[in-house]
Amino acid sequence: MKQDIATQRHYFIADATAAEKTHTFNSTLFGQDFRFNTCSGLFSYEKPDAASVLLMQVMCNTQPPLQGDLLDLGCGYGLIGIVLGKTHAQAATITQSDINEIACTYAQKNAATNGICTSVVHSDGFVNIAQRFHHITLNPPIHAGKEAVNRLYEASAAHLHPGGALYIVIQKKHGAESTLTFLSKTFREIKILYKRKGYFIAQCIN
Length: 206
What we know:
Layout: E1 22-29, E2 32-39, H1 50-60, E3 68-73, H2 79-87, E4 92-98, H3 101-113, E5 118-122, E6 133-138, H4 146-158, E7 160-171, H5 176-186, E8 189-196, E9 199-205
Parallel strand pairs: 3-4, 3-6, 4-5, 6-7
Antiparallel strand pairs: 1-2, 7-9, 8-9
């Protein structure tokens, strides 16, 4: 069932007042079983969204494998960071952040449910995040607006170690080409890791 913007009241906003319809689903991803608790205000609360699954698939196959500190930026209920934390359990230290406190609460619960050790930070972008990372993942909050998303890209570059990378997924219909042009001016190198059926996954190297 497609969610319209009105039903995603927690999606990249700090609103913690909306009534919640809770939901639980199980999912098998990349050979691992997961269980997620969500609520109706969160993005793609009924099942993993296709864009995030593609992003995780590409990152799971990254060579060399992910190592070091990883930030799941705009984590929602914690999907990407938890899955990568399980598939790279010995390699990456996971931090997850979201502007919405409810999302952070669910991310913490889901990390515990799935036996993943993550640090969850309630933060508007990088306001409450000082450290640098080797990897940052982002399924951009397109409906937050182009300027807000571009600020996240710029701030991500500032919070990466030299040689670190931001991984994003974006659809052609959401302005992938103009986004890649902007990113090419912000990062040292852009690699297109996946381009198919209107989806682009980019590795933006600092």
